[in-house]
Design brief:
alpha/beta, D-Maltodextrin-Binding Protein, domain 2, 8-stranded mixed beta sheet, two-stranded parallel sheet, 10 strands
Length: 341
């Protein structure tokens, strides 16, 4: 069940995008001297694995066969907590983590997952770029190297009744991912008591009427077919969810300087290309959801929009000092040109 939970989780919140053709594992090659054991629950055939296998091929070619990946896809290495344990004992070296996973290593980085923080992709990319050196140093202190931000994407509310203002959530039976303090705090700030469930229980809960409102990237909602039980999707993103690719500092230090640079440069390019692909696919998913019969509720304006942004202020203040220090939140606001209310 743990593995199933991880696979479903990433299908929804990691917005992987399964293609029409499965990406076939390359035939056996000579083992590189430096073989990075990399884990992800992204399935074979996904956009994620397509890009990672292309990077593996590129690294082997540019390094003269000295550097490459062994990719454990589809959750075969376990969920994020299991993968983290395996990295710490040296069974694995690197992995793609969601906020929940890397939040176990560095909780403060989840400041990037605050609701209604970003207004557009430009702001997202700017904050990621400006704060990467700081977070990279913080991860290093905990035994990990931040190789790159990994796109998860904008998460939207899906419901059986239209949500145009905060008060429209009143009376709705809203699911929240069990154990996620940011999601819980967000819905409480909206004046509702969410129903915490494991993500594997969401489909059943929708079918039985236990819940009638969920959140997911459009691509994830399609992959899980949640939209078949719902009627509306808010165009205003609830949150932009961030992921990261990390590698054990212990293993990273074993790499010769030229291979370290090759790895960092290669992942920077790969993650940029992956982000472009996933954003495009999520846009396409919105069109498919609309064509499938769901109503896309336009972004609110005026006072209605201000009420949603006020939720951000309340949640950000409530979690300051608990998940991240005030200085980190202030720095995010400074980059965005916002005041800390």
């Amino acid at each position: 069940m743990t593995k199933l939970r991880s696979v479903v989780l990433y299908s929804c919140l990691f917005a992987m995008g399964i293609g029409l053709q499965f990406f076939i594992t390359p035939t056996a090659e000579a083992r590189p001297k430096y073989l990075i054991k990399f884990a992800t629950v992204a399935p074979e055939g996904s956009t994620w694995i397509k890009h990672m296998r292309a990077l593996d091929k590129e690294l082997r070619e540019k390094s003269g066969g000295r550097l490459g990946f062994r990719i454990y896809a589809g959750g075969v290495a376990g969920d994020e907590l299991n993968v983290l344990k395996k990295i710490r004992i040296g069974q694995l070296h690197s992995a793609a983590f969601s906020g929940v996973g890397f939040g176990q290593i560095l909780p403060m980085v989840r400041v990037l997952d605050l609701p209604f923080l970003f207004r557009n992709d430009k702001e997202i990319d700017l904050v990621h770029k400006e704060l990467r050196p700081f977070f990279a140093e913080q991860f290093k202190k905990r035994g990990f190297e931040l190789l790159g931000w990994a796109e998860v994407g904008n998460v939207h509310l899906f419901s059986k009744k239209p949500i145009r203002r905060v008060k429209d959530l009143s009376g709705l039976k809203v699911w929240t991912w069990s154990g996620d303090p940011i999601a819980k705090e967000t819905f409480v700030a909206m004046g509702i008591n969410p129903i915490p469930l494991a993500i594997t229980d969401v489909t059943t809960a929708l079918n039985t009427g236990m819940i009638d409102t969920v959140y997911a990237p459009p691509l994830g909602a399609l992959a899980l077919q949640w939209q078949t039980s719902l009627k509306d999707m808010m165009a205003l993103p609830l949150v932009h969810s961030t992921g990261a690719i990390l590698i054990s500092s212990k293993y990273f230090k074993k790499l010769p300087p030229d291979l370290r640079k090759l790895l960092i440069d290669g992942l920077k390019k790969t993650m940029k290309e992956l982000t472009i692909d996933l954003r495009r696919q999520n846009n396409e998913a919105v069109k498919m959801i609309k064509d499938g019969g769901l109503t896309i509720i336009p972004v609110p304006t005026g006072k209605d929009l201000d009420e949603f942004y006020a939720v951000h202020d309340e949640v950000a203040k409530g979690l300051t000092g608990k998940i991240y220090p005030k200085e980190v939140l202030d720095q995010v606001y400074k980059i965005l040109g916002k005041s800390n209310k």
